[in-house]
């Protein structure tokens, strides 16, 4: 994510379940009440994913809560939303997803100069032993940090 952007939401589960090989920035097609809801933090990226159809990229299962004061202008919270990327980028991603078995996962949602951007990751799934290794590595680092903190006290 670039500097100066305000993070709206992050998909922490994606980093746990996938190896992120590459990340790209994309715009997203929203209506006004959805943007207002995003400003209040009403979004969930947990089970969302992207797919490419007819040369266009869409995000599926991204839940944006209805805006409280939106009345008739509110849309379906789980509707499919179109992502805005250059055609060459989309075709490059399409080739990698089809040939190498990668998945496209939204990693974060943020504001960049008053526009909403999505960080899309080209991800490869982790196996159970990979997840265990990550947890063991994180625990070992936590223990080392604790030991260094104890040692620096004296």
From TrEMBL:
Pfam families per the UniProt record, alphabetical: SmpB
Keywords of this entry: Cytoplasm, RNA-binding
Major localization class: cytoplasm
InterPro entries: SmpB, SsrA-bd_prot, SsrA-bd_prot_CS
CDD domains assigned to the protein according to its UniProt record, in alphabetical order: SmpB
Cell compartments where the protein resides: Cytoplasm
NCBIfam families, sorted: PRK05422.1, smpB
HAMAP family: SmpB
General function of this protein: Required for rescue of stalled ribosomes mediated by trans-translation. Binds to transfer-messenger RNA (tmRNA), required for stable association of tmRNA with ribosomes. tmRNA and SmpB together mimic tRNA shape, replacing the anticodon stem-loop with SmpB. tmRNA is encoded by the ssrA gene; the 2 termini fold to resemble tRNA(Ala) and it encodes a 'tag peptide', a short internal open reading frame. During trans-translation Ala-aminoacylated tmRNA acts like a tRNA, entering the A-site of stalled ribosomes, displacing the stalled mRNA.
Annotated family: Belongs to the SmpB family.
Protein name: SsrA-binding protein
């Amino acid at each position: 994510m670039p500097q100066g952007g305000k993070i709206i939401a992050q998909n922490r589960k994606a980093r746990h379940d996938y190896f992120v090989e590459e990340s790209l920035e994309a715009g997203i097609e929203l209506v006004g009440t959805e943007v207002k809801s995003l400003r209040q933090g009403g979004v969930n990226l947990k089970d969302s994913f992207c797919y490419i159809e007819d040369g266009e990229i869409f995000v599926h299962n991204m839940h944006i809560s209805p805006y409280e004061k939106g009345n008739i202008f509110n849309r379906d919270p789980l509707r499919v939303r179109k992502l805005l990327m250059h055609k060459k980028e989309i075709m490059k991603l399409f080739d990698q997803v089809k040939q190498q078995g990668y998945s496209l996962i939204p990693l974060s949602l943020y504001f960049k100069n008053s526009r909403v951007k999505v960080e899309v990751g080209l991800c490869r799934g982790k196996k159970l032993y990979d997840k265990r290794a990550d947890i063991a590595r994180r625990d070992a680092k936590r223990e080392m940090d604790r030991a260094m903190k104890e040692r620096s006290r004296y």
